[in-house]
Amino acid sequence: MAKFNETFFYHQPKHLNEISAAAHQVVSENETIFIGLKGAFKEYLICTENNLYIIKKGFMTGHLFGDNTFKMPYRNITNVEVSFGFGGGYFEVSAGGIQNTDKIFWSTDKKSDPAKQPNTISLTASHKAIFIEASNLILEKISEINTPSSTLLQEESVADEIRKFKELLDDGIITQEEFDAKKKELLGL
């Protein structure tokens, strides 16, 4: 089961159980969730330290039976955007290979309905502020990951951590299974 970060950002207490249930269906147990939000319909934004997930369920999202999960590593994301017009808006993830199109909250056309797009979440006016704040957090995360010195330091720190655990293994303080599990976690596997 995935863990929630101690600074978990959700600001929607009445939807916490629903968000948590959606997250635990798709997020692996070695990931830590730091953002969990619900859109206008059964649309959820879940962010871990490595990936962004958009989960869609229900009739309004085009999934009468079943659901859809859009998963994108931060290193592939080029932008996140919150856009509002008359009566509603949307949160959208941009990346190479994703063709973004104009969206209209009240559209019945699948191509322009944000509820039907895998990389988009429909929003009402009450969602605007929290999704803008979430967008800013996601953009910070993307910036951290895409900064070369940060990536190099992160790789060095992971290697150093693995070395420390290898020493613990060699000293007989931890088992091979514990070492392998920690190594997988540190490498994000």
TrEMBL record:
Protein's organism: Enterococcus viikkiensis
Pfam families: SHOCT
Residues of the SHOCT domain: 160-187
Alphabetized InterPro entries for the sequence: SHOCT
The protein, known as: SHOCT domain-containing protein
